[in-house]
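INPUT
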Amino acid sequence: MESLSIANPHPTLTTGKQKMALALAGLGVVLLIFVWAAKNAFSPIPMLLASFGLMVAGMTLFVREEYINKPDGIKNNGVWFKSLSARGVWGWMAAIIITGFYTVLFFAPNEWLLGLTQLFSPISEALRNKPADKWFVYGSLYTFSVLVLGVKFLYKYRHSRYQVMRTISVMFFQTGFSFLIPAFMQMMSQPEYYFTYFWPLKEYYGSPGAVQYYSTASSISVYFIAFSALMTVVGTPVLTYFLGKRWYCSWVCGCGGLAETAGDSFRHLSDKSLNAWKIERWMIHLVLVAVVLMTGLLWVNSYQEGGVLGSFSQAYSTAYGYMIGMAFSGVVGVGFYPIMGSRVWCRFGCPQAAILGIFQRKKSKFRITSNGGQCISCGNCSTYCEMGIDVRAYAQKGQDVVRASCVGCGICAAVCPRGVLRLEGASEDISERTTQKRTVHVKLEDVKILS
Amino acid sequence: MARFARVDLRTASAHRQVLRKKPSHKSLPTQLLVLTAPNYEIKHLPMNIIILGNGISGVTCARYLRKLSDHHITLVSDESDEFFSRTALMYIYMGHMREQDTRPYESWFWEKNRINRVRARIERIDYQAKKLFAQDGQEMPYDKLVLALGSQSNKFGWPGQDLDGVHGLYHLQDLAAMERHSADLVASDGKPARKAVVVGGGLIGVEMAEMFHSRHIPVSFLVRESAFWNNILPPEESDMVNRHLLEHHIDLQLETELSEIRPDPSGKKCGVVVTKNGTEIPCSFVGLTVGVSPNIGFLKSTEIETNRGILVNEYLQTSQPDVYAIGDCAELRAPNPGRRPIEAIWYTGRMMGETVAYNLLGKAQAYNPGLWFNSAKFFDIEYQVYGDLPAQLPDNQQTVYWEHKSGKKSIRINFDKKSGSVTGFNLMGVRYRHEVCEKWILSGAHIEQVLPQLGMANFDPEFSYQYEQGVVAEYNRAFGKQISLKQKRGLPAVLAFLQS
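OUTPUT
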């Protein structure tokens, strides 16, 4: 049979200016690593400025070349040809570097990170009145990525106001609620607390230890933990009823924020097969069971004042922290972006997403409406779904999409060339959101029986 | 009642249960004719149904046959093992998707649904013996045959049209050819990019121009008409596309026709396009996108009755017993008023595939494509049409046209001069709801009844600006009226309207 391998492996789509821009940004990263390795050898502020300045300058130039000087519209040309975004050499290298960085960050001795913590100390001193630790470094780099690549995303999708609003929202929540506010709170001698994370994603906030700690940590900290509990019990179902799980996953959450900005270039790499869906449903719900069990154990243990289950539940909790909190959500969750797409953690692991998904599936106004018979089955929607949902399977039947995993990023609707998909809500038909199939052309009552 | 309108949901789910229910053979002697229930077909021994062509028409037919029956189903294709979305070929070339991403069903789907797939090129059909003869010597007997042969790109006998580097864009093989030549077209290592010439200003032409453009290959786009697609699009919309093509630096040459294609020095490959006014355009690829016609070469001058396509009646039956034709290759003897006998469109193929499945099973169902609709995308500008919207405004119609100041979005509504009933919607850069527009048109809603409710039709993403106010203002200005917009975008109102 004649070979129909039609994807040209090497179309040259990157211009000279873009290469230069990427080189500048790369130089910034190399400088950062160099300063890290050199530890105390340089004065931190000029080095910070130089390294992050280079990264910002490089990205700005790249965005200018790639998006700004072109008419508004979908910009996916060459996505499957570029090494970085098509699991080529650069993609694998990026995966190895990010995975390696996370492994060092979470599991290596603190001395390994000395160079970085020293570098970030001036910022930490200014914001929190104390030297940087590795978590401050991590938070800074994370927020920086969300902001810089968020700006890239904003230019890429500038024609869609939904995308613009949503991205400004995740940039705002990451910078304000996950970075600045916790830092200021520490400066004001308040305990560290994140207003945008709730149990079960932040499993600690549901534990007896947290309740005990925040009840007494400061004069107001009891309200923090009360807010967290309220969001878990009331906020989550109510907001999901009105808006779908997207109110959290693609508008507020930090993991979602990174996936939607830094991860945008990799969203098409998610697996859309039925098998992947089966694995996903098992995995995410097992993690949910694990966290519920763990929290339950901790509470039982606290009532029994450390009785029979004392050491076990503590060990369980520690193991969960390492396995799920660090290895899964961090190392795999972000490290595998360039291989398995930007939502590996959100799709296969996040217990918060699991709960939000159950509400979205069972009791929510939200759905993605399919527009009559307009679908041409092209597959752009499925390809660019970061959650691996086969959107086309619904759209080509004229069926509305109601899936537990949908984070409501709206990219399926954006890339659709025929205006078929729309994220929206109504309360009138909640239990019947998926029963309608509009492209069914022949109605059974019209059929005559020949005899 | 509109065809796509929401039906009573209990009835709808009852339908599906009937569709899913499989006739049970175990308890009944299979040799007997079994009449199970009034709504079930008379069951014979399983029939051997062969579908020639695995495009959207053939595959839809196979899917519905399986849904409704237990017969043996075989899909035969010469083009590809896997069903893919033909409309997505451009996205493979542009790097938006890989070939496998354009396949609506995974490989297990066919086995699970017992749809047998055969790769073969059929050369002859014996209608009396009910047998297909393949190029490789295979013989395939059938009880019922469905011809879903698709189209082929038109060529009008131009000198040089068969040179290497001259291709249409319809088959997977055409895409492979474009890819093969592209290495030579793109700029590399100081060699400047070479030009591609696209001949024919239709939907495939503009796709091809966009494809080359995505690889930074310069394109000359030769269009016979005085404006792009102005036999379909009204002047304002056509002009909008013209402007947009220029914005993308496409060398749009209007009122230009192909005269001949001259070879390059090798004598085998295209080198120069000569237009009818004598202009010579040096190029390394020529895209012929001057429409498609039914792919029925091997059936011409055989027993089966053909004209441009295979002639079929309203039940999609051909002149031969137990042979049906659907999709691009079928030519209706008596199309619905206002519709063409051959419509090479994705959704009509899908509708024919479904309709023919009922007819094959002895449940007579006339093909009825319903109200006309369509959609396309011209580079960044999406286009949707619902109902009758001719390029030239007919004497009995009036139009209200609103255009955004960016010149990239517009909304047009045509309505009947006398009755005021809306007849068609044309959207550029704005999305409207199929079901809402259809219900308005089919129910003969008056334009002044539609305009206050117009927001209901809006299907743009949340937070997008809504332009219905502009349309209403334009109507008031043109006709001296005082209509005001009452309904904004939103699903609850739509559901209430569709259920009413």
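end of record. Chain B touches chain A through 91 residues (CB under 8 Å).
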